[in-house]
Amino acid sequence: MMRSMAGVETEIDLGDGSDSEDSEGQQPWKTQLETVLEEEEDEDLASTQSDTRPLINERDPRQINECLKVSFEDVIAEPMTVRSGDRVWIWSNALFEVSRVWFYRIITVLLAVPVSIIAGILFAILSCLHIWLFTPCVKMVLINTGWLETLWSSILDIIILPFYQSVAKCCGGFSIQLNRQ
User: Chunked in runs of 10, what are the mean pLDDT values of the chain (181 residues)?
Assistant: First the structure.
């Protein structure tokens, strides 16, 4: 897993500015940087060992809910000819964002666990039915009706295909010419 260091701020303490080494035999800035890198490696190790850890950062990896990425300007826009006061616009924007985020959090707290349990049970039932009922039934029908496939193929090759080929050859001799008068 690659991580970009663009958003991470690392404080580097160069001490007194000299090249002297501390008691551990390393420079102070190197010790702090190594500590940060080791913490990131520990997080990466934990994220590869856990099934849910990678989902914390990337919750829509397949961009399923791309249509829900809505900002204030996507919903409310004032043209140049009609404008409200600047304070009204700022407060409206702030209230929109706060209410959107907090009401979503409240509704998810109330509905996320029950809906995920119901969805899990539904997908488990559908998977069980598909694996243990539908697929064996379809396979059994296909095995027992293999002779019908052979019969239908023979009927098509012996009767229907020659008939339509002869009709095509008969109709292939016709030509139509359009003249503009």
Answer: 50 53 48 57 54 65 80 80 85 89 93 95 96 95 91 94 92 84 76
Q: Concatenate the DSSP letters of all residues of the chain into one string.
A: ----STT-------TTSS----TTSS-HHHHHHHHHHHHHHHHHHHHHH-SSHHHHH-S-TT-TTGGG---HHHH----SSS---HHHHHHHHHHHHHHHHHHHHHHHHHHHHHHHHHHHHHHHHHHHHIIIIIHHHHHHHHHHTHHHHHHHHHHIIIIIHHHHHHHHHHHTT--------
Question: Judging by beta carbons within 10 Å of its beta carbon (0-12, 13-18, 19+), is residue 53 exposed, middle or buried?
Answer: middle
175, two tokens: 């030509």
Looking at the whole model, is its pTM more than 0.85?
no
Kindly report the CA angle at 49 between 48 and 51, in degrees rounded to 5?
A: 85
Residue-range domain boundaries for the chain = 33-61
Measured CA angle at 165 (ends 160, 171), to 5 deg: 125
d(CA 177, CA 35): 85
Picking from 64, 47, 65, the residue whose alpha carbon sits closest to that of residue 55 is: 47
Question: What does the DSSP assignment read for 108-124?
Answer: HHHHHHHHHHHHHHHHH
Sign of the dihedral defined by the CA atoms of residues 89, 92, 95, 97, in that order: negative
